[in-house]
């Protein structure tokens, strides 16, 4: 009976529409070097970081919706520990994405400081 329930749950979860848009965004390639970058290059870097921020937000929203849909479609067949496991995995994905974003933002902000320090020396 337990095996049947497990197979039924897997079937329900597999049948639920998957958000194909939940693709993890690519980390921005090279960010500008504040020691040598022009203002235009720094502005382009800022735009890249803002776009990455928006892409991470969309990804996180997508995985949140995906989890909600999986839980709703499983209904009463989902045991509390199964739901908790699904929520734990989603939280790990969510936190990893936010940590990655924070790392990119921190690297860019360091280069902004270098750029501003360089500009102050000239001025």
Task: Explain what the structure shows.
By secondary structure, this protein is mainly alpha-helical. The chain has one domain (2-122). The protein contains three helices and no strands. It has helices at 2-15, 39-74, 80-122. The longest helix is centred in the last third of the chain and has 43 residues, at 80-122. The relative contact order is 0.17.
Summarize the structure.
The protein has 123 residues and is mostly helical. The chain has one domain.
Reconstruct the topology from this structure.
Elements: H1 2-15, H2 39-74, H3 80-122
Helix pairs in contact: 2-3
Strand content: under 5%
Helix content range of the residues, please?
over 70%
Number of strands: 0
Q: Kindly give the count of domains.
A: 1
Order of helices and strands: HHH
Main β sheet profile: none
Shape: elongated
Number of distinct helices = 3
* Nearest-integer average pLDDT: 86
